[in-house]
Specification:
Layout: H1 2-28, E1 53-58, E2 64-68, E3 72-75, E4 80-86, E5 92-94, E6 98-103, E7 109-113, E8 117-122, E9 127-131, E10 145-150, E11 156-160, E12 163-168, E13 173-176, H2 185-189
Antiparallel strand pairs: 1-2, 2-3, 3-4, 4-5, 6-7, 7-8, 8-9, 10-11, 11-12, 12-13
Length: 205
């Protein structure tokens, strides 16, 4: 008897709650109720370093990182901060053609440049470093990095114009997988969730 009363009470509550839930869903749907949402266009006039956006990423702290053809910006919702790479001669240079961004478990940020390699931003030191699969050949297509993926085993997969590389962070070395570059990668690189390439058993496609 108690069980019947319990289920009866749940049924009565559902009759009152479901319309409220439906109403909330309707309010949060930008198509059904566009008046609840405001779209603001931001660009170089507001401080962004370039008009052509290549990639965008929100980190664990809520900051937006925006990659363009002309540089990398960090956006806090109010202002842009242009992130540059400081050369050994103390001169700063822009990180061009930022194709993909990845935050690692240490909260550092990997930045893929189709112009000049794989950059890493260390938050604790506020320091930027750059790595290239083939530093001895600066003009090699392998140094055009377009994407990076960290698998469940801790291995980085680096997509370049010269093929697919493994990056061992502890050894700080790149190893060519033997898989050459293909134009089909352009469809993969646009997928922000690179985990779609890894199966539950750890197999990476």
């Amino acid at each position: 008897m108690i069980r019947l009363r319990y289920f009866g009470l749940l049924y009565i509550l559902s009759l009152f709650l479901l319309p409220q839930v439906d109403a909330q869903i309707h309010n949060l749907d930008p198509i059904l109720n566009p008046g609840q949402f405001k779209i603001h266009h931001i660009g170089p006039e507001e401080g962004m370093c370039g008009p052509f956006l290549r990639s965008a990423f929100q980190d664990k702290y809520g900051y937006m990182w925006i990659g363009t053809d002309y540089g990398l910006d960090m956006y806090d919702g109010y202002t842009f901060k242009n992130i540059t790479y400081r050369e050994s001669d103390s001169l700063s240079s822009q990180i061009l053609n930022v194709m993909h961004l990845l935050e690692d478990p240490d909260r550092g940020l990997w930045i893929c440049s189709a112009n000049n390699g794989l950059y890493y931003y260390d938050r604790t030191r506020d320091e930027m470093t750059v790595r290239k699969p083939l530093p001895e050949y600066p003009d090699s297509n392998a140094n055009w990095v377009t994407g990076i993926y960290l698998d469940s085993g801790g291995l980085y997969w680096v997509f370049t114009g010269g093929g697919l590389y493994h990056f061992d962070r502890k050894a700080d070395t790149f190893v060519y997988t033997g898989i050459p570059y293909t134009n089909l990668w352009s469809n993969i690189i646009n997928i922000e969730d690179f985990s779609l390439l890894e199966l539950e058993d750890g197999t990476v496609w």
